[in-house]
Design goal:
The complex is a heterodimer of chains A (492) and B (325). By secondary structure, chain A is α+β, with helices and mostly antiparallel strands. In chain A, 36% of the residues lie in helices and 26% in strands. Chain A has a domain of 290 residues: FAD/NAD(P)-binding domain. Chain B has 325 residues and is α/β, with parallel strands linked by helices. The chains are: A alpha+beta (492), B alpha/beta (325). Chain A: It is found in: Mitochondrion inner membrane.
Chain lengths: 492, 325
C-alpha cells in the first residue's frame, strides 16, 4: 500500500523527488512524513533563495524593486535586480534635457510617491497643467485643464534617466533587502511547468536563473523587466502579437519663443505631433510620421526643424480650403450648442508657442509599434513594462503602463505576503496582477490604436466628421473629463 | 488536561464510498469529497489497507490538491481570506503585530485536517512552525512532497498521518494555536472533537493567548442554498442527501461547545466570495462560511467584553461578533 500511495503521489508531482516521504503506515500512526530532496539536482537552502529576481534595471524594474522595498509587508522580501550593464543610481541634469522623456500621469505620480522617488523626480521635471488636442484637417479642438479635474497639475514631463535613477536610488535606500547584481547576463531560465510542477532540472519547485558568470540564482518569482525584446520572455516561450505602423516617431528638443505649461498635440495627415514642456523652459517634440518624412526631419538644421514644427502646428486646418467648410461650420455650431447646454467647458483655444530652434542632441527617430505578450504570467514568472506590452508612443503612455504594472505587481505581492501565499503562485499572479493589467493595457492600446487609425483617414468628409467629434467632445465637459481621466489612468 | 473523548472522533464521511466527478462548485465540496474518500481515510489505528482501485481514485484526487484548475481551486480561492483571519486573530490574542510580514514567527501551530497542505504552507510563510495532520495517507504524502518544493516551507512544516485524538493520546501537544478548517461539520461528535483540540493547546503558563481556530459552515437557509442545493443538486458534486444540513454548526452551538471544552468563542468573521474579482473576503455576516477564534475561558473576561473588536482583527472584519447572530 505504501508503495502504491507513494507512486501515486510521485506521479502527481512527477519530477519532485521525495525519497523519504512516508505514506502513513496503518500500524505506525505516528511516523512523521517528511521530505528531503535527494535528487541529482543541487539542493537549495532557504538562505540561497531570492523571493523576487527582477531581470532588467530600467524604469519599470527599478519601480518594482522600490515599491517592494518601500512597503512594510514586502520589505523583508529578498530582491535582486539584474542587468547586463551597471545602471546609474544618480542623475546629473545636463544643460539641455535628453531626448528620452516621458509624460508622467497622476496615476504614475502615485506610483512614484509610493516608491519613494517622487520628490527627486518632481525637482527635475516640468509640470504641465493643460492639454490641448486638435486636428490639422478640420476645425475643433479639445482642451483639458487640471483645474477641471481638481488637480494641481495634469502631469509632468520627465527624462527617462531621471526616472530610472530616482527609482533605483529609492530601492537602494528603502530599507528593504534589495541587491543590484550587475553586470549579469542571463543565460538560462528554468521554470515550473504550466501546472506548477517543478522543472525536471530542479530539486525544488522554484525558478532557477543561470548567469553568464556561472552563478545560478534560485527565485520564487522572476520578474521580466527587460524590455520589448525580452530575453526572459523568449526563454519562457511566451509569444507576442502586434504590428508596426509603418511610421517613425521623431524626438527632439527645441527652444520656444516663450515658456509654456501645456501639452500640445496636433493630429497631422501623417500622424500626431506633440509639443511638451520640459525642464529649463524648453520643449520636447514627439512627431510621428512616415519614414521618409522622419528621415527628412532628422536631416534639417536647427532653425529649419523649428520652422517645420511651426508650420505643422500653426497652419490653418486644411479643410478650410477644401470645400467642406459648410460641414465644419455645422460642426462648430453644433459644438457651440452642446457647449452652451453643458455649461462651463473646455476652455478656449490656445495658440502653441513658436519653436525657435533645435537644442541639445540632434533629432532621432524610432519605429512605432504595438506588441503584446499573449500572457503576462506563468508559474513563477511575471512580465512587466515593455516585456509585456510595447505600445507605440502616441501619448507617451508606455512608461505609464509600465509603472502601472509595477504598482499592480507590488500590490499583488503585498497581498501574497499578507495572505501567506507563494509570491510565484500563478493563480495569485493571474488574478491580482495579470487580469487588471491586461484590461488596462488592452483598453489603452485599443484607444491609442483607434485614435491613430481614425486620424490616419484623410479623406475630407472623414476629416470633417472628425472635426465635429472633437468640437463636440470639447464642449461636453463630463465626456471630455471622462476621456481625460482615462488618458491619465489611475483615475478610472 | 488530556481530555480524551469517550469515543474516537471519526471523520463523518465513511458513509460515502461512491466516487464523484471532480466538483467545480462551492468551496466545501472538494473537502467533503476528500473526507468522503473511502479507505485511504481509514483510521490509522485500524491499520486498514488500501484497495488499489480506491487508492487510484483517491490518488488522482490527492494529486490535484495543488492543481491550479483542479477540484480544489475553490479551496485555494478561500485560503488567503482564512489566513488573513488567522494573522489578525492570533496577533490580537497574543498582543502581537498583525502588520508584520511574519506575525506567527516562533509559534507552534497544528493544522488538523491539513489535506494537501494548502493552509499549512501559508501558515509556515507567516513564520509559524506547523504540524499538519490528516487521516488520509495520500494527502499527507502529497502535502509533504509539495512542501519540498520550497526550502523555506520545507523547513517549517512537518506532516503526520494521524487523527487529532490519537495525536493527543500520544502525549503530543503544546501548540500555541490549533486550527481545524472546514473539518468540524464532518466529525461525528463535534463536542468531543473540540475538547480534543483544546487539549492540544500548550498550558496557559507556557503559551498565554493560545487559541483554537475553527472554520466551518453555518446552519442557515443561505448555507443550505449554497452548500447543499448548490453542491449536491445543481453542481451534482455529491449524491443528494449525502451531506446532512443537520451537521452544520451555528455560531451559537460552537459557543456552547466551546464552553463545554473550557474555551470561549472570542471573535468570528464571515467568509464570502465578495471581494474584487470574486475573491474571498472576510465579512461581517456569519450566515454561510465563517471562521472563529476560541480562547481559554480563564484568559477571556466574562461576558465577552474583550471579544469582538478588541484587536486589530476588527479592522479586517474579523471582529464580527457571533453574538449578533
Amino acid at each position: 500500500m505504501n508503495g502504491a500511495v507513494r507512486r501515486l503521489a510521485r506521479s502527481a508531482l512527477s519530477s519532485l523527488a521525495f525519497p523519504s516521504a512516508q505514506a502513513c503506515p496503518g500500524s505506525a500512526p505516528g511516523v512523521i512524513t517528511s521530505l528531503r530532496a535527494l535528487s541529482a539536482a543541487r539542493s537549495v537552502s532557504p538562505d540561497e533563495c531570492y523571493d523576487v529576481v527582477i531581470v532588467g534595471g530600467g524604469m519599470v524594474g527599478a519601480a518594482v524593486a522600490a515599491l517592494l522595498g518601500g512597503n512594510r509587508m514586502t520589505q523583508q522580501m529578498r530582491v535582486a535586480v539584474l542587468d547586463v550593464k551597471p545602471q546609474p543610481l544618480s542623475f546629473t541634469p545636463a544643460p539641455v534635457p535628453g531626448l528620452r522623456v516621458s509624460t508622467i500621469t497622476p496615476g504614475s505620480i502615485g506610483v512614484l510617491k509610493a516608491a519613494g522617488a517622487w520628490e527627486e523626480v518632481e525637482a527635475l521635471s516640468a509640470p504641465f497643467v493643460d492639454m490641448q488636442v486638435w486636428d490639422a484637417a478640420a476645425p475643433g479642438h479639445i482642451r483639458w485643464s487640471a483645474r477641471d479635474l481638481g488637480e494641481e497639475r495634469m502631469g509632468v514631463v520627465a527624462e527617462n534617466p531621471l526616472l530610472q535613477a530616482s527609482l533605483l536610488r529609492a530601492a537602494q535606500r528603502s530599507g528593504g533587502r534589495t541587491e543590484f547584481l550587475w553586470p549579469a547576463e542571463l543565460r538560462g531560465l528554468r521554470l515550473p511547468d504550466e501546472q506548477g510542477r517543478p522543472h525536471p532540472g530542479c530539486s525544488h519547485g522554484l525558478a532557477e536563473l543561470d548567469l553568464a558568470d556561472g552563478r545560478t540564482l534560485v527565485a520564487r518569482l522572476v520578474v521580466a523587466a527587460d524590455g520589448s525584446a525580452s530575453r526572459v520572455r523568449q526563454m519562457a516561450g511566451l509569444r507576442t502579437w502586434g504590428w508596426g505602423y509603418g511610421q517613425r516617431g521623431v524626438v527632439a528638443t527645441v527652444s520656444t519663443a516663450e515658456p509654456h505649461v501645456t501639452a500640445f498635440q496636433r493630429f497631422l495627415p501623417t500622424g500626431p505631433l506633440a509639443l511638451l514642456p520640459v525642464r529649463g523652459g524648453l520643449s520636447s517634440i514627439v512627431w510621428s510620421t512616415t519614414p521618409e518624412a522622419a528621415a527628412a526631419l532628422e536631416a534639417l538644421g536647427p532653425r529649419e526643424f523649428a520652422a517645420a514644427v511651426n508650420k505643422a502646428l500653426l497652419d490653418p486646418p486644411a479643410s478650410a480650403a477644401s470645400g467642406f467648410a459648410p460641414v465644419s461650420s455645422l460642426a462648430e455650431a453644433l459644438g457651440r450648442m452642446v457647449g452652451a447646454g453643458a455649461g462651463g467647458g473646455g476652455g478656449g483655444w490656445r495658440e502653441p508657442p513658436r519653436a525657435v530652434e533645435l537644442v541639445g542632441s540632434s533629432p532621432k527617430s524610432f519605429p512605432l509599434q504595438l506588441k503584446q505578450a499573449g500572457r503576462f504570467v506563468l508559474p513563477r514568472l511575471a512580465l512587466v513594462g515593455d516585456a509585456a506590452h510595447a505600445v507605440h508612443p502616441l501619448a507617451g503612455q508606455g512608461v505609464n503602463l509600465g509603472l502601472g504594472d509595477a504598482g499592480a505587481l507590488a500590490e499583488a505581492l503585498r497581498g501574497a505576503v499578507a495572505g501567506g501565499s507563494d509570491p510565484g503562485d500563478a493563480r495569485l499572479l493571474g488574478e491580482a496582477y495579470e487580469a487588471p493589467r491586461r484590461r488596462a493595457v488592452l483598453a489603452m492600446t485599443a484607444a491609442m490604436d483607434g485614435v491613430k487609425r481614425a486620424f490616419a483617414v484623410q479623406a475630407p468628409p472623414f476629416a470633417a466628421v472628425r472635426g465635429l467629434g472633437l468640437g463636440l467632445i470639447n464642449a461636453v465637459g463630463p465626456v471630455r473629463n471622462g476621456i481625460m481621466n482615462y488618458a491619465m489612468m489611475g483615475n478610472t | 488536561m488530556a481530555l480524551r473523548p469517550s469515543r474516537p472522533v471519526q471523520p463523518a464521511t465513511r458513509r460515502l464510498r461512491a466516487p464523484a466527478p471532480p466538483p467545480p462548485g462551492p468551496i466545501l465540496a472538494p473537502l467533503r469529497r476528500f473526507l468522503a474518500s473511502p479507505s485511504t481515510a481509514a483510521s490509522p489505528a485500524a491499520g486498514a489497507s488500501v484497495d488499489p482501485r480506491e487508492a487510484a481514485k483517491f490518488g488522482a484526487l490527492a494529486a490535484s490538491w495543488w492543481s491550479p484548475s483542479g477540484p480544489f481551486a475553490p479551496l485555494h480561492a478561500l485560503n488567503p481570506a482564512r489566513v488573513r483571519f488567522v494573522r489578525e486573530s492570533l496577533a490580537a490574542c497574543r498582543g502581537g503585530d498583525a502588520g508584520a510580514p511574519e506575525p506567527l514567527k516562533g509559534l507552534r501551530v497544528l493544522d488538523v485536517g491539513c489535506g494537501g497542505g494548502v493552509l499549512s504552507e501559508s501558515l509556515a510563510r507567516l513564520g509559524a512552525s506547523v504540524t499538519g495532520i490528516d487521516v488520509a495517507a495520500a494527502s499527507v504524502a502529497v502535502a509533504a512532497a509539495h512542501a519540498g518544493g520550497d526550502p523555506l516551507v520545507a523547513g517549517r512544516v512537518s506532516y503526520r498521518c494521524i487523527s487529532a485524538e490519537d495525536l493527543a493520546a500520544s502525549g503530543t501537544g503544546g501548540f500555541d494555536a490549533v486550527i481545524a478548517s472546514e473539518v468540524l461539520e464532518h466529525v461525528r461528535r463535534p463536542h468531543d472533537f473540540l475538547a480534543v483540540l483544546a487539549s492540544l493547546l500548550a498550558p496557559p503558563e507556557a503559551s498565554p493567548g493560545a487559541a483554537v481556530i475553527i472554520s466551518t459552515i453555518n446552519r442557515t437557509p443561505a448555507a443550505w442554498a449554497f452548500a447543499i442545493a448548490g453542491a449536491e443538486y445543481v453542481a451534482r458534486v455529491v449524491p443528494p442527501g449525502t451531506h446532512s444540513f443537520k451537521k452544520f454548526v451555528t455560531p451559537q452551538e460552537l459557543a456552547i461547545m466551546a464552553d463545554a471544552s473550557g474555551l470561549k468563542l472570542w471573535h468570528a468573521s464571515g467568509m464570502a466570495p465578495l471581494g474584487p474579482g470574486g475573491a474571498w473576503a472576510l465579512t461581517g455576516a456569519l450566515d454561510v462560511n465563517y471562521i472563529a477564534t476560541l480562547r481559554r475561558a480563564g484568559e477571556v473576561q466574562a461576558g465577552g467584553a474583550e471579544g469582538p473588536g478588541a484587536g486589530p482583527g476588527a479592522e479586517a472584519g474579523a471582529g464580527a461578533g457571533a453574538e449578533r447572530q
